Each structure stands twice: as C-alpha cells, then as structure tokens.
C-alpha cells in the first residue's frame, strides 16, 4: 500500500528512527538529570558529614563545660559551708573578745577605784 505516494514501510522506518532518536535524547536528558542529582546528593552528604563532625565537637565541648560547672559548683558549696562555719565561729569569737575586754575593763576599774 501507498500513502501519499510512499510505501508504508518507509513511513514506519521514518517514524521508528524518529522515535528511537527521541528516546535516545530522553535517556540522555534523564542521565544528565541523574548525574546532577547524584552530584547534589554527594554535596549534601559532604555537608551532613561536616555538620555531624561539628555537632560531635560541640557536644564534646559541652560535656567539658558541664564537668567544669559541676566542679565549680562543688567548690562553691564547699566554700559556702566553710564561710558559714567561719561566720558562726566569728560570732563566738566576738563574744569571747567582748567578755575578755569587759574583764580587762573590770580589772582596770578595780585598780583605779581600789587605789
């Protein structure tokens, strides 16, 4: 058979070649897109690894700070206890000094009045 003066076999070859070329172009475009996506995924993976390393370092630093804060808190509690004892001891010391000075004053009054 003929359509428009050409045999159908020629039309099939023409359209077959066109379809094959179109498919090749589509496959090439898909391959290019996939390569671009793969490159993007690799960049994202690299960034994710860097973020992970940064987070690990920051976590280590936070642990160090936490240990330092715990040590400082312990030292402050110890110092607070010592200061509280010193303040209580200081009150007793003040009372002792007052008693001693009153005794000295009484002795001096006795000496002055007794002479």
Automatic annotation (TrEMBL):
The keyword Membrane applies. It is a single-pass membrane protein. It is found in: Membrane. The keyword Repressor does not apply. Its main location: membrane. It comes from the Eukaryota. This is t-SNARE coiled-coil homology domain-containing protein. It comes from Prymnesium polylepis.
